[in-house]
Write a structure and sequence with these properties.
Blueprint lengths: L15 H16 L8 H8 L3 H4 L1 H16 L9 H19 L5 H14 L2 H12 L5 H30 L1 H22 L11 H6 L1 H7 L1 H32 L3 H14 L2 H12 L1 H19 L7 H31 L6 H29 L2 H20 L9
Helix pairs in contact: 1-7, 1-8, 1-9, 4-6, 4-17, 5-6, 5-7, 5-9, 7-8, 8-9, 8-13, 8-14, 8-16, 12-13, 12-16, 12-17, 12-18, 13-16, 14-15, 14-16, 15-16, 15-18, 17-18
Length: 403
């Protein structure tokens, strides 16, 4: 069965059923690259390695995601996006299943890189929602689908932490592969065909990335700022499980459960998208980034609280900073997607390449700082990087800025 896609008019809206399906698809796909974060301790024990060494697993997964965004997501501007999504999901399902049988650390690193590359199906799903939504509701529609993506990022930690503690790390990836198989079946029958309107070759598509970067100062400003925010995000989540174990004696299930707190912040995505449509993304960004900075500053004062208040306050800070990170990303997407609609796949590739380069830097730097400086070192990094992002956002985007 083939459904034909079309962009809706201003008087039409995307059906809620379709939005829910796209949201679930984005969430389950992107979750694949976050299952390994709450189980760093389990992997360290299983492979008899230091935490800093096992930190290579999430780092390579995120590098893979960045590579997939840069080299595979632009394919959506030249081939049918439905076929691209189905193909990626099929390969991702296979990679997740193979990961559960990793018996050596080098094998785990290689398959983690592949999982990251193929999980970029999540980005194709987000772009599909932008392509078929009416222009005056694009921010809201993308925001709703991004809520699913954010929920997948955060709830994957809950799932991974609990299953890892009680069923072993291998079971996590087997169940993840099963979830992707269900997505393949769903999208095969429900996702409309989305043929490309471009006649460009892959070489031309990739060759156009540099001119897009040079042409749009708003693009440069947005991707650098969001990349800096991603450093803070990844540094925190990569080291949280170890911090909770060392300071409170808590296991991976509790670390994963912090994803529930972060998921509360995911509700900001449709709110930020709708407000960006109405009052402008720049105003939303200044507030959102400020919330991120203040949340991490507040975490520095947690040791001053009574022990029974410390975890509750940390949960509150997690909700606030995730709210700010999510709102910032949706607002940056609203800006970037509006620059050149026919190049939306390539613009998205540039944006999320920087996001996941930031993620990879945050994972590596967070693990290093925690081992050599301590938790406060991680928090200082998580404060400084969004502070630089705020300064960048406060400067007007001009042709000469950020070149």
């Amino acid at each position: 069965m083939t459904l034909k896609a079309h962009t809706l008019t201003h008087t039409e809206t995307l059906p809620l059923k379709q939005l829910f399906g796209l949201s679930a698809g984005a969430g389950f796909s992107v979750a694949s690259i976050y299952y390994n974060q709450p189980i760093i301790g389990l992997l360290s024990h299983a492979f008899h390695l230091k935490v800093s060494e096992v930190g290579l697993v999430p780092m390579l997964t995120q590098i893979g995601y960045a590579l997939g965004i840069l080299f595979l997501v632009p394919l959506g501007d030249m081939i049918n996006r439905k076929k691209l999504i189905i193909t990626k999901l099929t390969l991702l399902c296979s990679a997740l299943w193979l990961c559960s049988f990793a018996s050596t650390f080098p094998y785990l690193l290689i398959i983690s890189l592949l999982i990251g590359i193929l999980a970029t199906a999540a980005q194709d799903i987000v772009l599909a929602s932008a392509a078929i939504a009416p222009s005056n509701q694009r921010g809201k529609s993308v925001g709703i689908v991004m809520t699913g993506l954010f929920s997948g990022i955060l709830l994957s930690r809950v799932f991974s932490g609990i299953i890892g503690q009680f069923g072993g790390w291998e079971m996590i990836f087997q169940l993840a592969a099963s979830s992707i198989l269900l997505l393949i079946i769903y999208f095969w029958f429900s996702l409309p065909s989305m043929p490309s309107q471009n006649t460009l070759t892959y070489k031309q598509i990739m060759g156009s990335l540099k001119p897009l970067w040079q042409q749009y100062p708003q693009l440069r400003q947005s991707v650098i700022a969001q990349g800096l925010l991603s450093i803070a995000f990844s540094a925190f989540w990569t080291t949280l499980a170890v911090f909770l174990a060392h300071n409170y004696g808590l296991g991976s299930a509790t670390a994963g459960a912090f994803g529930l707190a972060g998921a509360a912040g995911a509700i900001s995505a449709p709110l930020a998208g709708g407000l960006s449509d109405r009052i402008g993304a720049n105003k939303i960004l200044l507030v959102s980034i400020s919330v991120v900075i203040l949340s991490f500053i507040a975490m520095l004062f947690i040791p001053l609280l009574a022990v029974h208040f410390q975890i509750a306050f940390l949960v509150l800070c997690v909700i606030c900073f995730d709210f700010g990170i999510n709102s910032s990303l949706v607002s940056h997407q609203t800006i970037v997607y509006s620059l050149k609609p026919e190049a939306r796949g390539r613009l998205n590739s540039i944006l999320f390449t920087f996001v996941f380069i930031g993620m990879a830097i945050g994972s590596a730097a967070g693990g290093y700082l925690y081992q050599h400086v301590g938790w406060n070192g991680v928090l200082v990094l998580a404060i400084v990087s969004p502070l630089i992002a705020l300064i960048i956002r406060m400067k007007p985007a001009t042709p000469t800025n950020l070149m």
